[in-house]
Specification:
alpha/beta; Rossmann fold; 8 helices; 258 residues; seven-stranded parallel sheet
Length: 258
Amino acid sequence: MPNRLAGKTAIITGAGQGIGEAIARCFADEGAQVVIAEFNPATGEAVAADLRAQGHTAIAIQTDVADSASVDRMAAQVQRELGGANVLVNNAGINVFRDPLHCTDEDWRRCFSVDLDGVWYCCRAVLPQIIERGGGSIVNLASAHASQIIPNCFPYPVAKHGLLGLTRALAVDMAAQGVRVNAISPGYILTQNVIDYWNSFPDPDAEQERTLAMHPGKRIGTPDEVAWTAVFLASDEARFMTGANLQIDGGMSILYHG
């Protein structure tokens, strides 16, 4: 079913690379006008320019989701240039992994400022546009860490658990105004961050094999496999879905790891 997002304007945060970039490209291929809300202006504009070269409508706006004023400026620009958004994908996030006994105030604030506060700032800024346009969809990128605790990853899973709470609370409170709010929880996805993680070990190939063995299919996911799930949640095909969390982890979470 082509053009599943025709007539929709979508803001995707952190879309200058990785999963966010894949979401932006899949959304554009399905007919959406795309806003690349990216902290790095160079990568954001590169993605937007490439989409425009393919005939899509795409703009890049430098955005620091941890700064509510920056988010508000981004939303105002979307309103001016594209008439507002009716889809928001909160993809921007950072990994902060610390030993709990050595997690500083700065570590804690850095994690929550992007992974939870930033999502709320974006929702708060864009919700009025979505409502004004007759309703729409918010898709929050959570993580496998939102439902399982993996050792040595504190405080990242705390923020991601909070993100699921935010998703469910907004889903209930915004439903009567035609706004659906759902989450996606990816597991291991083949992004540069995962490759860099493997390369941090003395034997990267052995660590990669260990990671693959954690999955029933002996492989990890691709950014496009997350992106197409976001397309579904943003489309009218998912019009009766809200407050849901779709786990995309290749079965890792249900495989016994004894």
